[in-house]
Amino acid sequence: MGSARPGTHVRVFERLRRLAFTALTLCVACNGDLLGSGSSADVAGAPGLTSGAGAASGGAGTTPGGDTPPDCANTEVGKSPLRRLTREQYDNSIRDLLAIEGHPSLALAADEKLAVFFSNSISPVSRLSVEQYRDSAEELAAAAVEAQLATLTGCSGAEQTAACAERFVQSFGRRAFRRPLSAEETARYRGLFDANATRGFSVAIRVVLQTLLQSPNFVYHLELAPARAGEGVTLLSGYEVASRLSFALWNTLPDSDLLDAAGAGLLDTKDGLRAQAERLLESDRAKDALASFHVQWLGLDALLDTNKDAQLFPQFTGQLKAAMRDETVSFADFVIRRGDGRLQTLLSAPFTVASATADLLKLYGATGSVAADGTVQLDPSQRAGLLTQGAFLSAHSHPNQTSPVHRGLAVRKNLLCTDLPDPPANVNNNPPAPDANATTRQRFEQHRTDPTCAGCHQLLDPIGVGFENYDAIGGYRSAENGLPIDANGELLNAGNASGTFSGAVELAKKLASSPEVRACVQKQWFRFSLGRFEGAEDACTLQRLAADFEASDFDVKALLLSLVTSDAFRYRKVEP
Amino acid sequence: MKALPRPPQKARLSRRALLSGLGVSTPLSPFLPLLEAQGQEAQPLRLILWFTPHGTVYDNWKPSGGETDFTLGPILKPLEPYRAKLNVLDGLRIQADGVGAPHTKGPPLLWTASPLNDDMTFTRADGSGGMYYGWNSGPSLDQVIIDELGPNTPYESLEFGVRSGGSHPGSRMIYTGPEAPLAPETNPWAAFKRLIGDIGKTGDQLEQLRTERRSVLDVLDGELASLQGKLGSADQKKIDAHLAAVREIEMRLQNSNIACQGPVLGTEVDANQSSNTPVVMDAMIALMASSLSCGLSNFASMQYRVGENDGGYLYDWLGISDLEHHLMTHEADTNLTAKAELTKIYTWYAEMFGKFLGKLDAVPEGSGTMLDNSLVVWGSELGKGNSHSFEKMPFVVAGGAAGKLKTGRYLQFDGVEHNRLLVSLAQLMGVADMQKFGATDTKTGNLTGFL
Q1: Across A283-433, where does the E strand assignment appear?
Q2: CA of B56, closest CA in chain A: separation in Å?
Q3: Is the pLDDT of residue A64 over 50?
Q4: If we measure between CA atoms, which residue out of B55, B136, B53 comes closest to residue B391?
Q5: Which residue of B has its CA nearest to A400?
Q6: CB A16 within 8 A of CB B107
Q7: Between chains, do A124 and B131 touch, taking CB under 8 Å as contact?
Q8: More reliable by pLDDT, A542 or A432
Q9: Size of interface A-B (CB pairs under 8 A)
Q10: CA distance B364 to chain A (A)
Q11: What ipTM was predicted for this assembly?
Q12: pTM for this predicted structure
């Protein structure tokens, strides 16, 4: 799930987050009296994590807002609204169906976004969207038929008959719809072929193809397996769970092996499902999904469209940006699928991947020699996993300066799954202009000293200043304007993660082993792979996830395997 | 659907009712003669809604002088040629209580006058005082009027935009109902192909394309209809909307006999590239005007950028090279450099608006021009950028609704809610008995002094 390529809609979100939380002159939305009885106390009305229920990863009470442990004797899952393919899923599906590369989805309307992940699950199609699907399908079908009619259909020369066309409808349709066509459906498409047959085989195939690509069966993640009478949940059909599995772990539609497994009933059991999930994770094709997740999770969608002050950061070229994005996704893929898989490693490892470019390594001051295990050592006093990589640090900075507020916000929202109220109206959101005689920390002092600002900003800036040793493109610095950098920070109202720290490496390690971050990561993967938020009825799934994650010493692969074999993944709530 | 204060249902079936209210298995053909029978003598009025982000610089926007002897300020100066056909409305406010940040709820509030849903659609956080908000809760004015009047045009409405963001309330202003945004066309070259391109084809080619598309739509129609009864009601609504859209396209194929002199668009450029904005705007304005003059629809909208945040690039074509628009709006009123640069931006907005008016005014129609038979309403999601104020919303209404509206006026109001304007517009467009509009409407009637 995710957007094919950052577009203006994504920049809007990125920019909103950036600009809503820079310097404030008034701050009345947060209670000014938040520092009550200690850093991990629950202060009424205070944004941030409450310690205990809702924050801990294991144990009772993972129901959001609830205190009683879930029953888990009966299967209960939250509702799954009908959703359409995202742009990324559309592009990847087209790539696999037609061997056409590129981003045809850019001609489609933008995706809906729920928190950090794209998912078209709430609003219906626009009238325009239906025409856009049509235009895209016509163009793709024409190109495919022109370039590869024989390979596509398996019918060449004398075999270009109606019977061959019907076989094409069934085999291609099965892949495009992620399930076999019914007899009625096959007849319908065969009828379409016949109606156009006098125009020639290739035209008739084109018309059939363009229809398949506009079909609701292609465009929607349709889940129709009916429930037995009186039951509130239904087990997804093998094909339906295959589709969920493939989009979750490969970010595209199922390959024929997975469809065959579904057809043979192998996905109807947890063991069978798990076996296929393991196959998918073993394959390099899993990198697409891991990349999509990490880009969205870390707020990197807009990175490729971000620009920096050309005089201050001339090295921040298109290539460097691409290299940064590449590094983060390759690193995540390496750790999860070939390394120890652990969240701790993702968030605190002092190495990067062999594919890191020379420019990027120069930014890190690294030699670039690749160790036997495929890693490139970085300075452990400077680099610790995802949060100290160029991508994260650049995405959450301004063009000409860093941003303690945005970096703090990214940690709070994306890693701790908490949120803050809006800044009040009538505040000047502009970051204070860079000052040749002060550090960034000093320029943002007002957030700390002004009681009307401090209420909210103490939850952001003290995290963000921990990153001050990294400039606006992630290069390490020990001084700013000749003045020493003070990167001492504090996590407030962060449950068990609360406390002081010095510098981003220590912060990363703190977060890497925090129960709150683990719980949040579980939720983010849930949201990404199911395209919806978790609800109260998903409590049992979340509890199981937490237990499995912990039992594996927080191995993301284990989390994913637990997720795709969970009730929330295998069952659907039946809605009236 | 949340109940709107609405006038009693008319006896005549609206197009929308035909498409959506009668169940998916109803064949279309019996109703075609009914639609074709709606002969049109006089040109129906047009309503065009026009959006630019972040309000304005009030001092430089407001005219000086009295109701009819006013002088346009620097920002609205480009509209001088249409002075006699304008109403400048000063002092309207938007009732903006409810969830959502100002920039987020502003675009939906502008034309729906209804708050965002107080739900957790767009965010989820644990035990925090986070910003919960959902989609819009009501339809926009244009869609309500369309519903009432049931126009017989190939397109019910046409949405156009320039870099209009994603699928999110802060980036969408036209809604057919709750949680039902309409996405705008943002690429004028693609839109040209879609709207007008086929018109250039020869009779045979065109007929073949139509036959082909009809056979495709027939299959899609069947597939969507066959989902009936297999989905929960919330999901079914999405399929219904999809099916309604397919049927609208089908109807268009059956009925269209449009002869359209399309506009000449320049060479295609990347419509997402901010530096191409002036070229894209020009093309979009030309296309919009052509679509209206060809009668493709009598309802259109232009959404320039997004209410959420007009940032991420510079207005370099205006010589502004240091600060983004949104950031600039947050400078203090005393920052005269920012004020001057913002004024440049808003003046450019007026130039674009004026360009569109010029295109309408250049086409003779009836005893006047297309502009005379239209209402072109320019608004924004906020009044003032730095305070996020919903007071003194800058509204301009161009066109005289075929003589039903007095023009050439500068009207000042003392904090009157804009629901009154929306009601007035609906009445002018022919919904005679509308008295209230939007869930925020606590009063009734139209805007005193305007009608």
Answers
A1: 351-353, 375-377
A2: 15
A3: no
A4: B55
A5: B322
A6: no
A7: no
A8: A542
A9: 234
A10: 30
A11: 0.88
A12: 0.89
